[in-house]
Amino acid sequence: MIFIVSTFLLALVTAVACALPGVFVVLRKSSMLVDGISHAVFPGIVVGYLFTHDLHSPWLILGAALAGLLVVAGAEWLRTTGLLSGDAPQGLIFPALFALGVILVTSRMSNVHLDTHVVLVGDLNLASFDRLTVGGVDIGPSHLYVMLVVLTLNAAFLAALLPPLTAATFDPAHARTLGIPVTGLGLAFMFLVSVTITAAFHAAGALLVIALVVAPAATAHLFTTRLASLIGWTVAIALLGAGAGFWLAFASDTATSAMMAVIYGALFLIVLVATRRGSRRHRLR
Amino acid sequence: MTPAAFLSDHTFVMVTAGTTVIGGVAGALGSFAYLRRQSLVSDVISHAALPGTLLAFLLLTALGRDGRTMLGLLIGATVTGTVAVIAANAITRHSRVAIDTAMALVLSTLFGLGMLLMQHIQRRPLPGKGDIQDYLFGNASTITRADLTVSLAVGTLTVGVVAVFWKEFAVATFDRDLAGLLGFHHRILDPLIFGAIAVATVIGLKAVGLVLMVAFVVTPPAAARQWTRTLPGMVIVSALIGAGASALGAYLSIVLGPVPTGPVIVLVLFLVFIVSLLLSPRSIVLAAYRRRRSPALP
């Protein structure tokens, strides 16, 4: 496969894999929790790398995702103590985990090759270098297949559990009376988000992956209310934003993840202004 | 290492004094973010500060000045940080997007913009441009006497503004509608409060880095809240916790060998928070004990 085409495909698959669970992240008001997860994944990757010495290992992805889940479960526990107010529970654990990661990297691993820049900022082209060959034929970067697996997992999870997840999201009390394990389902979902974020850091970097998760769903949420069309539009916006961001970054020779985040932000702003105009005109009639 | 040897080393003293000021200012002003139930605005501010510091850098070098002076960095970062928080709040007012999603959007867009600016700067032969790592992680050992003076002045000035507008800040923090009824202008008060929180966040940008500053703003108030129930008490205890943990963390990071200072302070802060949660009068341990004594109604 041609290098640039396979990198483009990797960008699109990563964007959609992140955007799909993003629909429920936005609806459940967990967007800033995703930021916490993406920071906590960093020490997870560092510790995982100490054991595996391979940034692409599935064990490393699972281990790092567990660190992300620690933030989710910890925030939930701190919230239920009733001793803290507002969004403070979401902001207390991830900095401590991140600090641990920085200390590990600077002290224990100074002789181990782990580029913090790659982990935090991401590099799509580097992620594309590791190719998968079947019978001597190059079938694209191996990371593309990792992301395809993650995308399939996310789609399968949503397809299988859409009704209970919807009920648990919009009316947890009602969902509980129906016998849906609301807390367990929420944790399972956030674990999947955590896995997705970990897998995506190669392409997007741990600090900008939040844009890939939150922005498309937030933009679609501006003009759609039905869940099915929300999911459809989210995927469409993810493809558009990631595609445009990729080629703009390619043309101007800049970082893909940063350009994607900026394009996503611009798309959101355009749709926000357009829908405001539309609703005002609608009201005047 | 003896205390005398510690105090005779210029760098050690600068690191400890600098981070103590940062911890105290961030702790005091962070209380307002906590009480507004928006602790995470500090996370938005710290990420939005990246393009601000870089724009200040470009402007200063264009004027032929040193692009990485503390005051320039602080002003640039405070401006973009405050704008980011106001933008996030405006998005929720004008659409059905919730505040957490709006915060995530503003944070990632501005940080992305900052990274593009960083790349632009990297490709030009500018003096003292530094690396993205310097902004992400900071470096406490680079604190100079001038930096310390500037941080102290900016911190004192901001805490002074808060003291002058104490009544307005208190009402606006606890009862937004009442503040409006009393004739306080949200258009003026909101930027002031968010600006103060922005100063609290960006004051440690050079020493601690933008990723970890959130802990300096979120953790001390959360710990202080366990020990006090008044606003003045909260601000004072939070400032003391911030300053004390920073001094201890800085000392430990030096004594324990070459360990980065910022992360050690963050871990000390987290420990103080956990201890407060477990041992304060409102503690979970005590509450569980009381519950066992008198079981709650089903």
Proper CATH architecture of chain B:
Orthogonal Bundle
Order of helices and strands of chain B: HHHHHHHHHHHHHHH
Strand order in the largest sheet of chain A? 1-2
Oligomer: heterodimer
User: Which fold name corresponds to the CATH topology of chain B?
Assistant: ABC transporter involved in vitamin B12 uptake, BtuC
Mean pLDDT of chain A: 87
Question: Which spans of chain B of ≥5 residues are poorly predicted at pLDDT below 50?
Answer: none
Mean pLDDT of chain B: 87
* Domains of chain B, number: 1
Determine the CATH superfamily of chain B: ABC transporter involved in vitamin B12 uptake, BtuC
Q: What profile does the largest beta sheet of chain B have? A: none
Radius of gyration of chain A from the CA trace?
Answer: 19 Å
Distance between the terminal alpha carbons of chain A, to the nearest Å?
54 Å
Binned, the helix content of chain A reads over 70%
Q: How many DSSP helices of chain B?
A: 15
Beta-strand portion of chain A reads: under 5%
How many domains is the backbone of chain A divided into?
1
Explained architecture:
The complex is a heterodimer of chains A (285) and B (298). Chain A is mainly α and 285 residues long. Chain A has one domain (3-207). Chain A has helices at residues 3-27, 31-52, 58-81, 88-107, 116-121, 124-129, 142-170, 172-177, 182-204, 209-221, 227-252, 256-284, and strands spanning 131-134, 137-141. A two-stranded antiparallel ribbon of chain A has the order 1-2. In chain A, α1 (3-27) packs antiparallel against α9 (182-204), α1 (3-27) runs antiparallel to α11 (227-252) and α3 (58-81) runs antiparallel to α4. Chain A is globular. The N and C termini of chain A lie far apart (54 Å). With 298 residues, chain B is mostly helical. Chain B has one domain (3-213): Orthogonal Bundle (ABC transporter involved in vitamin B12 uptake, BtuC), CATH 1.10.3470. In chain B, 78% of the residues lie in helices and 0% in strands. Chain B has 15 helices and no strands. The longest helix of chain B is centred in the N-terminal third of the chain and has 26 residues, at 10-35. The model of chain B has no long low-confidence stretch (mean pLDDT 87). The interface between A and B is large, with 57 and 61 residues.
